[in-house]
Write a structure and sequence with these properties.
Residues 127-146 are annotated as: Disordered. This protein is mainly alpha-helical. The protein has a domain at 29-123: Four Helix Bundle (Hemerythrin (Met), subunit A). It is 78% helix and 0% strand.
């Protein structure tokens, strides 16, 4: 595959993810973050195994950013102790990835991937919460206050 085809494919994938995120439920958005984080970690591990240091670092950086997105989504008022504990877990995972990046340690990447997989599995089992509140506006209209 030539470079132009690769760039076009990346652009398509970016637009596809953006479009999916625009219509996804909050539950699905969190699932997408977990999936994206795990994909970046798998990619980082592959780059590390091939001694590709720069792409490895980029993928770890993206995984750290995704975990930061999960942290920013925590609702400490509604989540209470659970949100506090998740914040601590996410902080630990971010620090572990930074250490893995510095030490080129596949074991640390695997550890973070295992914890993210556990969190994703738990999140998937919760399932999206259904709302009984009516949505304002006309059918098909996006309501920014919902």
């Amino acid at each position: 595959m030539d470079i132009r085809t690769q760039n076009a494919l990346r652009q398509y994938q970016s637009v596809n993810v953006d479009a999916t995120a625009a219509i996804a439920s909050p539950h699905r958005l969190v699932q997408m973050l977990f999936e994206g984080g795990l994909e970046r970690l798998a990619s980082a591990k592959g780059h590390l195994e091939r001694s590709e240091v720069i792409p490895k670092s980029e993928m770890i950086g993206k995984a750290v950013g995704i975990i930061n997105g999960l942290r920013e989504g925590l609702n400490f008022e509604a989540g209470g102790e659970l949100a506090i504990n998740l914040d601590r877990v996410y902080d630990y995972l971010q620090r572990r990835l930074l250490e893995a990046n510095l030490k080129n340690d596949i074991g640390m990447i695997d550890e973070v991937a295992a914890r993210l997989t556990e969190l994703k599995t738990a999140w998937d089992e919760i399932g999206p919460q259904t709302s009984t509140a009516p949505i304002e506006g006309e059918p098909g209209e996006i309501n920014s206050t919902a």
